[in-house]
Amino acid sequence: MPDSSATPDLDLTFLYEIADGSDEFVVESIDMLLQQAPEMLNSIDQALQSADWPTAAAAAHKLKPSMGFFGMLISQGLLQDVELLCKAGGQEPDEIRAKYNQAKELVETNLTALSRIKSEKEAGI
User: Fold this and answer.
1) Model's pTM, two decimal places?
2) CA 85, CA 93: separation in Å to the nearest integer?
3) How many domains does the chain have?
4) What are phi and psi of 66, to 5 degrees?
């Protein structure tokens, strides 16, 4: 099992448990996140820039379950905050932006780590 201690917000325990030894499942799961997470982050980013709080909240809500699946609980919590603050009408745009930026940075770091793990797994398939 790869060491994910390089990133404080990545714990693949759950993924490995449900993969039940299938590297192919792990690779496919990671691949899906690598495709979807940047799109979702981009949606949140654009919505925040245009103060479209309902769209930002919906995109944050949609990305949250994936964060839990990959043990990215800090990111998941930050996205939860972004979602709730946006649902409340975006009265604190600076706080929303700060939490989103923190989540985005963590997620992007994790995506890099996941990409590396995916390559290692593919080499073994």
Assistant:
1) 0.90
2) 8
3) 1
4) -60, -35
Q: Quick check: is 83 in a domain? A: yes
| DSSP alpha helix (H) spans, the chain | 13-19, 23-49, 53-69, 73-87, 93-124
Domain that includes residue 29, residue range: 13-124
Q: Dump pLDDT digits (tens) for 38-95.
A: 999 999 999 999 999 999 999 999 999 999 999 999 999 999 999 999 999 999 999 9
Q: Which pLDDT tens digit goes with each residue over 10-24?
A: 999 999 999 999 999
Question: Domain of 48: which CATH number?
Answer: 1.20.120.160
Pick from 83, 45, 81: which is nearest to 62 by CA?
83
Question: What's the rounded Cα separation, in Å, for the pair 21 and 96?
Answer: 39
Helix 73-87 vs helix 93-124: angle between axes, to the nearest 10 degrees?
150
Task: Give me the pLDDT at residue 37, please.
Answer: 97
Provide the pLDDT for residue 5.
45
Does residue 67 contact residue 41 with C-beta atoms inside 8 Å? no
7: its two tokens? 């990133």
- Residue reference for tokens 């990133």: 7
